[in-house]
Amino acid sequence: MNVPMPGGGGQRGKFYTNEKARFNPRLFRKLIRFALPYWKMLLLALLLMGLFTAADIYRPLLEGQAIDAFMEGVSEGTLPMQVARNGLMQLVGLYALMVLAQFVLSYCRTMTLRSTGQRIIRDIRSAVFRKVQRLPLSFFDKHPAGVVVTRIVNDPDALNELFTTVVLGMFQNIIVLMAVTFAIFRTDVSMALCLMAAMPLIALATIVFRLKARVIFLEIRNRLAHINAFLDEHISGMGVIKAFHMEKSKIDEFRNVNKAYYKANMRNVVVMGIFRPFIDCVRYLALALLLWYGGIRTLGGAASIGMLYMFIKYMGMFFHPLMELAEEFNTLQSSMAAGEKINAILEEDEEVDPADPVPVARPLTGRIEFDHVWFAYEGENWVLRDVSFVIEPGQSAAFVGATGAGKTSIISLLCGFYEYQKGRILIDGVEIKSMSKKDYRRHIGLVLQDVFLMAGDIATNIRMWNERVSDERVREIARYVQADSFIDKLPGGYDHVLRSGGGTLSSGERQLISFARALTQDPEILVMDEATANIDTNTELLIQEALLRLQQNRTTIAVAHRLSTIKNADRIFVIHKGRIRESGSHDELMEHRGLYYHLVQLQYNGASEQGQQT
Ligand code: UTP
Ligand code: MG
C-alpha cells in the first residue's frame, strides 16, 4: 500500500487537524455508550462520592463546634476534665469516626472509578481495533500508520477521562459548591456574602482562562500530531535519509517542528502560571476580608470563634472545586477531541459485504470475468477504463504493460481490496459484490512483490496460523518453491523467529515464503504480482518449473515485467493506460506485431546490448 507521507495530501483532516474541541452533545451521546455497560459501577462511584462529600462538609462544622465548646469552657473557667465531659469528647470521637469513614470511602471510590475507567479504555481500544480490521485498504492509503496507532493507543485514555474524571468530577465539584453554599448561608448570611464577594472576580478569571486554554490546547494537539507524523515518516524512512545525506537538514527541520510544539506548551505554562496564582491571590484577599468582617462580628458577639474558623475552612473548600471545575472543562475539551477522532474511525465505511451473500462454491472452478469494469481510486481519475476479459478455469493469464498501467489495480479489484465504480467482476459467474469477501478471498492465493511477514517463526508464517497445515506439509511446500535451502541455513530453521515485517530476510527470500504461504491454502485461483521480481534467475527457473505443475489444476494470473517469465501463459493481456490493448498467446501477439511485440523487442535488444557491453 502506498502510505502517503505525512505533511502532504489533505485527506486526513478529521484524524489529524481541524480539531473541534467544543462540547458536542450529539457526540457525547454516542460516546457514552462505552460507559453504559458500567453504569452500576459508575453509580456506585457517584454514591461513594456523595457520602465522602457529605462527610467533608460536615467536618468543619464539628471542628467549629469543638472549638466553641472549648472556648466556652475556658471562658467559664471550667476544668479540662469537665469540658471533656461537657461533650467535647463525643465531638472528637465522632470526628475520628468520620475521618476513618472518609478513608474507607475514598479508597472504595478510587478503586471503583479507576477499575471502571480501565475497563472502558480496554473496551474502546478493542472496538477501534476491531473496526480497523474491517476497514477497506483505501482507508490505509489515506491514513499513516502512526496516526492510526495513536487512535488505538492514546485516544481511548483521553476519552476515558471524559467519563471518570470529567463527568463524575464535575458532578462532585458542583455538589460540593452547592453544599458549601448552603452550609455557610445557613450559618451566617452576612459572612457568607462576604465570602461570595470574590465570586465575580473568580468567574471572570475562569472564563478568560477557559477561552485562552482552549485555543492553546488545540494548538498543542496539532503541534503534537505534527511531531508524531514527522517522527513516523523519518524513522520508517531512515534508510532514504541516510542514503541521501539528509541527516543534517532533517535535524534542522525537526528542530523547527519541535520548537513549535515547545512554544505552544510554553503558552500553556504561562496561562496556567497566571491563572492559579491569580485565583490564590483573590482567595487570600477574600480571606482577609472575612477575617476583618468576621473579627468584628465575633468581637461584637454576633459570631463565635468556632464559626469564624468554620468559615475559613469552608472558604478553602469553596475555592478548590472552582479551580478543579476550570481544569475539568479543559480536560473535557481534550477528551472531546479524542472522542471525536475515535468516533470518526468508528464511523468510517467498512468493507462492504452484502447483507445476504451468495455462498461461494467449494471448490471453485476458477473462472474469472471482468465485464466493462471502470475503476478510480479517487473521483473520476480512471485507472481502469472499460476493462473486459475472461479467464477460463485452469487457464494461466498474464498481464503486462508499463509502470502505472493498472495491472496491480486489476488484481486489487479481483481480491476485493477496492470497490469498482462501473461494470462487473465475476468469479464462477457470480459477481464478487454479492459474495462475502472473506469467503471468496479464501480461494485466492496472493503473492506480491512486497511481502509482509508477521512476527513469528518461519513455519507459522508459511501456514499463516492455520493449525490444520501440518509441519510436514509446510516443509513439503517450502521444498516445492525452493525455499528450503535458505530456511535450512537460518538458525533454528523453520523455528527461526522473525520480527514483524520480516526485515532481516532478503526480498527474494521473503517472496519465496510468500509463495509457500499462498500454496498452503491450496487456492483455486493463484495471483502473482511481480512475484518473482526479486528472485535470481536461477531460482526463478526452478520456481517456474514448480509453477507449471501448480498451474495444472488452478487458474493463475501473473503480472510480470520480465516477459520471459510469462511467455508460456495461455493468454497475455497488454494493459496500456488502464485499457486492454491486446490479448492472445505469446505467439499470436508476436505475430500481431503490436505493443507486446515492441515490449519483447525492447527487452530482447536491451538484454543483448547489455550482453555485448559486458
Ligand atoms: P497500478 O499500481 O495498478 O499500476 O497503478 P501497475 O500497472 O501495477 O504498475 P507497476 O508496473 O506495478 O509499476 C495504476 C495507477 O493507479 C494509481 C497509480 O498512481 C497509477 O497511476 N494508484 C495506484 C493510485 O492512485 N492509488 C493507489 O493506491 C494505487
Ligand atoms: Mg503493480
Protein model, in words:
The protein has three domains: 23-346, ABC transporter type 1, transmembrane domain (ABC transporter transmembrane region fold); 366-443 and 554-609, P-loop containing nucleotide triphosphate hydrolases (Rossmann fold, 3-Layer(aba) Sandwich); 445-522, P-loop containing nucleotide triphosphate hydrolases (Rossmann fold, 3-Layer(aba) Sandwich). It has 21 helices and twelve strands. It has helices at residues 13-16, 25-31, 39-75, 80-134, 137-142, 145-153, 155-187, 189-196, 199-236, 238-243, 247-299, 305-346, 407-414, 437-441, 458-463, 471-480, 484-489, 507-520, 537-551, 586-592, 595-613, and strands spanning 368-376, 382-391, 396-401, 422-427, 430-431, 444-447, 456-457, 497-498, 525-529, 555-559, 571-576, 579-584. Strand 4 and strand 5 form a beta hairpin. Magnesium ion binds at residues 407-408, 529.
